[in-house]
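Appendix B: a complete holo record

For completeness, this appendix reproduces one full record from the ligand-bound portion of the collection. The bound molecule is zinc ion. The inputs are the chain sequence and the ligand SMILES; the output is the full three-dimensional arrangement of the complex, encoded as structure tokens. No fields have been trimmed.
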Amino acid sequence: MAMPFRFELLHQDAGSAARLGHFTTPHGAVDMPAFMPVGTQASVKGVDAGRLRESGAQMILANTYHLLLRPGAETVAALGGLHTLMGWDGPILTDSGGFQIFSLAERATIDEHGAVFRSHIDGARVELTPEDSIAVQERLGSDVAMQLDHVVALPNDREVIAEAMRRSVRWALRCRAAAKRPDQALFAIVQGGLDAELRAESAERLVAMDFAGYAIGGLSVGETPEEMYETLHVTLPHLPRDRPRYLMGVGRPIDLLEAIALGVDLFDCVMPTRNGRNALAFTDRGPLRLRNLQHALDREPLEPDCPCPACRHSRGYLRHLFQANEMLGPILLSIHNLTYYQRLLARARQAIAEDRFTAFCAERRQGWNRGQDDIAVFGLRIAD
Ligand SMILES: [Zn+2]
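The structure of the chain with zinc ion bound, as generated:
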């Protein structure tokens, strides 16, 4: 690993594979397990950098695909790079565009050279090779860049999944050869669908190339939560203990805890902000739907012990903001949900440090026992 980056494994939970870690980057350190809010277009929707910091976030994600199309990597670089542009001085991870080419781009064709697609904004023809993806991420100036990967839908033919996985491995090598910035770490992405053998092959080949971190990609694309957990269970043992492990695009609070128990260190997902914009608040007693009439005269905050600005108000007021289409409603609920995720991860880290992570998961699961199943996992990364 290049010098500005360091991952320290501080402790492993006595009753599970949950890990307490500390990841140092040129823009500061991240306590792991960690959750990254998603700043799709160099903006976490409705939440400025100051509020983001107050929510407890230490590291955020931005999408290469979106920034490549608008305003363009050259414009971001001319405005000082992503950190300056967003006013965020902490670590930033950029994804490579592989997932958005799969989920958003129009008429995408992918061959060994790279991807060619039409912009979903204006139909412009765009080519993105592994080398292009690295060049764009270097101009954006993120702390962690992701390799370009070939994502395919699930379920799919084993041969299709295998070929996309092996292409992703070859692209990982091309990305590493293209990467020039010493102040940017490169993470590889393990693919292979729900197939244990393909996942193991992907992981082992990437680990042999020695990357600064490893992501598990190609999940949250239509499989059940149980299939996702099983895939993590068979994949994580193939990854080195001394590198961060990042589960891309996941998920619900319960998914985070299940994945942490299996040894995942890092997450990103649009769930807190997207659900916040849609009047759904996460709490320890399950999600609250503020548009429901039962909250109209409710003087209680979303959560009594939450320090966020939304929780200075009553549920009745927050419901009114949504009913009246006031923009403050989606903003406040986004901040609350981001704060909820960060507090959940902080409590998870505390539980790991005290060797009681399994008991912590059981308590949380009991509290959430209602409502979680209403929130679909499928497609949550796609349109944000
Ligand atoms: Zn709150």
